[in-house]
Amino acid sequence: GEDVEQSLFLSVREGDSSVINCTYTDSSSTYLYWYKQEPGAGLQLLTYIFSNMDMKQDQRLTVLLNKKDKHLSLRIADTQTGDSAIYFCAETFSGGYNKLIFGAGTRLAVHP
Amino acid sequence: DSGVTQTPKHLITATGQRVTLRCSPRSGDLSVYWYQQSLDQGLQFLIQYYNGEERAKGNILERFSAQQFPDLHSELNLSSLELGDSALYFCASSVDDSYEQYFGPGTRLTVT
After folding, report:
1. Residue A97 sits at the chain B interface (C-beta within 8 Å)
2. Do A96 and B56 touch (CB under 8 A)?
């Protein structure tokens, strides 16, 4: 079935790396995504990875995919206070058209 | 700014009423998606339209309906409103059945 799970909260110090984790259950996932939501704002597409890839890097963001364990992670290098937000993991899967299945979101708090 | 616009930004109405939420996709995008974000259910896919035709349906109540017009803007109609319909409603758009969905800022609906 369709299920995406994330831990709810992460606190890091400014300048450290943040790692946000996500697990999914659908083995027919096609793409996996990370979206960012700041307070009072919409969802910003940060990055995505095709399910046959293991890793994708985009500036300070690194996405790692472990297909065997159905585990996705987002690493933010040199975390800044502007990175404080809720981060949503999401998937699309074959046969599901492009509907996004979202996790509950991880609230990232960055402190000085 | 994703290029997706939604109006109104906020809407307050009473139980039993009917409201219409409007979405204009990014220029050139043919697909429009509607999502609901609530504290209880998280982010849930409601419905997708592609070039005027319904493409996929999610957990959309029978009291809710949507359409996409020839100019590609979309409207989500919510009727016989209940307190539990209070939520953020997001519209997203993509070029076609593309894997990149871009979200609007949302409409916050409060039912009193």
Report:
1. yes
2. yes
